[in-house]
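Below is a typical protein record.
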Amino acid sequence: MGRSVALLLVLSLVRISCSCLDPSSAYKFTGAVCRLTYPAAVVLNEKTTKVIQAAFQHARYPSIKGEKSMGFIGTVEYGFNNLEIHNLSIGKSEFELKENEGIGIYISNVSAVFKGTIKYRYGSWLISVGQTVDFEIDSQIDLVINSKLYCGKGKVAADTSNCYLTFHKLKLLLQGDRAPGWLKRMFTDIVTFTVKLVVKSQICKEINNVANILADFIQEQAEQFISDGNIRVDISLTSSPIIKSNYIESYHKGLVNYNNEASVINSSVFNPSQLSENRMLYFWLSDGVLGPLMSAAYLDGRFIRNIPGTELTDLFQTELSSPRPELLSKWLSSEGPVLKARSVSVPHLWTTTQGTSVRAVAGVELLLANQEKPTLYFETDVTVVVRVSYVEKKLILKATGELIHITKVSTSEGASEIEESLKAYLQEAVEKMGIPKVISYLEPELTALMDEQGLYLFDIINPEVVPQDGYVIVQLDFGFPHHLLVEFLRKTLD
């Protein structure tokens, strides 16, 4: 009993440790990879000032209390309240990818005015003076953030605790008095040091907060994008992200979950050399992700389609080299014909440099009005090679039939010679009518699914889908839409 418990404990620890491994060890458990190159970081850095502005404005500055002995004046007691920020502006933002260390961000010439009220009292046992007045703090600050990325609870997390503020100007004005007397000057010198510490602490804390909210937001959007309905994809990290001088790369599980059953990846073919640095953004997707997605879609009943009435008769107007059997023409001209097509078994998917191949057994039945049993039923073993592109915000699928074999034909007539005469025609019909018809359904439906997740909002430039042996690479350039960042900041920080 003791050994069993110990074994279970060891196995559980192994599972926990597998959630965030060393990158080289994590490769074989990786189903999806994201590589963001230096040019992409430049585009994102252009939005950094908005994030920093949000951090300054969203920071909650606590009340400050203190006291100091000032010789013959006695003890000075003071308290700041209702500290708010006004007239914020940021000069420029620069960054550096520090290999195996982190991301250096340099924000220069941050100008801001802090406003609030101050209560102060000074004096001794002989005399005591107290007052509550409005104040302003006129500041000019440079900000240096050395951000590290790590694996926190399976997600990319940011540590910006290595944060420095340099105050080029921090001037306290009481009631707008820009020419204070010696007492006020002495008093402002006392509290300035305290104000610096509080502002630095709250700003750095809020930057760390906003950075992690933004990281969570991006990952949640990515997970939502590749999930739909009962089909979910776990993109938790398999290891901490790595930072090179030219790119940032993160490794994700890519496990498909359907009805609480999850796929498994333990022999991924990923290697960093498979990705280059010529484009701004790369996504690497394993067959270990695409295959289970296909299986989940099948189990969810998504590979079923009815083609009724005129849509069906129009489909069979396609000219083929094989003559259409008279019996089939008779059935199609009958009242209310409906063709029902479905995948009989789980489709099998694999990717090569030629494209993504899908093999499936399709079952097709032709029903006429008021008939419970099909007039015609046939099954076909089909293998198609699909190449994917994304043009003008629409998904384009180009499918080529590699292997089409009619494996079963039966009719209500029941004559074997009739069934045999249909085979040649149906085989050509599947290739020249069936496959294009399926593609005509998939293209708009998959485009609509991606649009639901907001892909059309992004400025995607020259995307390419590159099939390789056992995986697919999606590579693209992009322009980050300003309104999305503004909307994120509004929803998150309001």
